[in-house]
Structure formats: C-alpha cells, structure tokens
Amino acid sequence: MYNRGFIRTFATDKSIKKLFLYTTIMINRELIRIKVVQLTYAYYQNGSKNIDTAEKELIFSLSKAYDLYNYLLALIVGITQEARRHVEVAQSRAQREGLAMPSQKFIMNRFALQLEENKMLNEFMETQKKNWNDEPEFLKKIYTQITESQIYQDYMASPEDSYDADRELWRKLYRTLIENNPDLDSLLEEQSIYWNDDKDIVDTFVLKTIKRFEEKNKGHQELLPEYDSEEDKEYARKLFRASIMNADEYQRFMSEASRNWDFSRLAYMDIVIMQIAIAEMMTFPSIPINVSINEYVEIAKLYSTPRSAGYINGMLDTIARHLIEKESLLKHMEPRKS
After folding, report:
1. Residues contacting 188, CB < 8 A, separation 6+
2. What is the pTM of this model?
3. How far is CA 111 from each of CA 84, 166, 210, 221, 327, rounded to the nearest angstrom?
4. Rounded (5°) CA angle 73-78-82
C-alpha cells in the first residue's frame, strides 16, 4: 500500500489544483502521474516488490478515486433528502399547531433535484454497497451546519429564483462546508484507505462538474467519465512498468548527468520522480520532452524538498539532451539559451 498523506499535501497547493480544472475526464494524465509516483515509491518501500500486485494496486487506486467522485456528488443528494425529512417534520408540526408552513426553497433547489435524477449517478450508486442513508448522524450534522451558515441564510432570504442561483448555492456550500470538513475526512477514511488522501484532488472535479451542469440537460447531464479511453489506462500501466523494469538504466542516466552534484545525497523521492519522468520520455514518443519535464517538476515542488524542483529540472534537461545526442531518445528539444 502506498504511503499515506502524499496527495493531500500535494493537491492543496493552488498551482497544482489548476492542473485539474480544465479536464473533461476524471482520470487524466496528471492524476495518473501522481498515482504512479505514489505507487512506485511504495513499491520500493514495501518488502515484496511484486510488480504484478503493484500494478493492480495502481489501477485499483485510480478506480477508487472515481468512486469517490461519484460518492461526493451523491452527498449533495443525501443532504437534500435529509433536508426533505426535516421539512416534512416541520410541516406536520405546523399543521398541528397552526404555525406558518416552512419554506421549501432549499429542498426544491433545481440543481440538487437535477442531480438526484441524474442517470449516470443513479446507475453508479446502484452498484455500490453503501450510500449516504447509511450515515444518518453525519447527514444531520452537516445539514445543521448548512442551515446555520450565512450562505444558506442569504440564499433563503434572496428573492432571486433561478437555476443559476440554485447551482451557485451548492458550489458555495461545497467549497465552504464539504471541501474542508474534518468529520467528512474521518468518515471517508473509515470507508476507504484511499479516499482521505484522494479527496483534495477529487474535490476539484466535483466543483468542475457542478459548474458544468445545465438545466436543459435534466437527468441526462453527463458526469465526467472515468477514462477518456483505454489508452489512458494503458498509459498508466506502461508508465509504471517502464519505471520499475528499467530502473537501473534510468538511474545510471541520473548518475552520469549528476557529475556536478552529489547523486548519493539526492532525496529518494527525487530519484523516484526522475525515474518516472525518464520512463515517460523514453516510452511515449508522442509526449514532448518539455511537457514531461514540466509535469514532474511541478510534482517535485510539493512532493520533495524545497530545492528539488530546480535540481530535477536541470537534471532531466541534461539527461534528455544527452540521450538525444546518443540517438537513444528520438525526440526534439530546443537548443539551450545562451
């Protein structure tokens, strides 16, 4: 199992979150790179070093991130259903005691109702053993937090009555009360050893999905698919296997390129990140070298030491140019600026 805490540390940085905001699929190349770094590091940390088992763990870890995406969208539905129960109780009391009837504005929120009817989400949840109705205490608590929030109070008092306002309410509630919620983090950690670490990244996908919803699509609004194609799943497998199986060769490239540095004093995470970056450069002809270098430099900024990003950038640039000169790497790089 990979070491815990990597993704949470990694994804809280705003520069990293930007990587995920414009994707149209859930599991994209950026997320795959993160998972490959995690699982490669874990591969060397555990004792068995069984590459087949580790590869299955990689694919399973990616699939659990997609499960969490759906589960967090379903939370909005769960909260709405909890609110409906509260309103029904309040209505019964109002009828008995001759009180004013409670507002139904929140439970009639157009975005939440559309999500409740969403075909893709319902099909997914039907395959799951758990749903949010299994967590009544959590639903009660978060519903109370919502009703006590200024966001909710402003929404209920506003005369505006539109789909855009309803969708915006849930975007704000999600960012304020769901994105950073210690109770939710604890609950997710109990349900899956993956989910607590994945949540920061998955939150960005959920928020993107909320923003993409359109009223005209009704229950057929498309959610983000898990993969764009089998090609991305194969990319994950090939990148992971190349990183492990050619490790000695790639580390020799690093050693040769580090003549001006003390390679032996390199942080181990730096070695892992560079090893994977070299694997990508060598294994995938269609990915430009500068893209590979930039992606892994960004990962290094949060995964490793403060000095790692600059060091890795220089090392990978040197290694790539050396391999091109030897014709071991058939890609193009712009000449160094003088």
Report:
1. 68, 195, 196, 199
2. 0.83
3. 15, 6, 8, 11, 56
4. 155
**What is the per-residue pLDDT for 264?**
67
Q: 41 CB contacts (<8 Å, ≥6 apart)?
A: 2, 3, 6, 268, 269, 272
CB 297 within 8 A of CB 312: yes
Of 29, 298, 66, the C-alpha closest to 202 is: 66
Q: Radius of gyration of the chain from Cα atoms?
A: 24
* Residue for token pair 């290694």: 319
**CA 72/CA 84 separation, integer angstroms:** 19
CA distances from 302 to 9, 185, 267, 269 (A): 7, 21, 13, 11
Q: Is 21 helix (H, G, I), strand (E, B) or coil?
A: coil
- Burial class (CB within 10 angstroms; exposed 0-12, middle 13-18, buried 19+) of 155: buried
Print burial letters for 70-100: b (CB count within 10 Å at least 16), e (below 16).
bbbbbbbbbbbbbbeebbeeeeeeeeeeeee
> What is the pLDDT, as a whole number, of residue 193?
85
**Length of the chain as a residue count:** 338
Count of CB atoms within 10 A of residue 213's CB? 20
* Residue located via tokens 């730096």: 270
Q: So what's the pLDDT on residue 256?
A: 84
Q: Is 223 helix (H, G, I), strand (E, B) or coil?
A: coil
Q: By three-state DSSP, how is residue 255 classified?
A: helix
Q: In the chain, which stretches have pLDDT less than 50?
A: 1-23
pLDDT at 255: 86
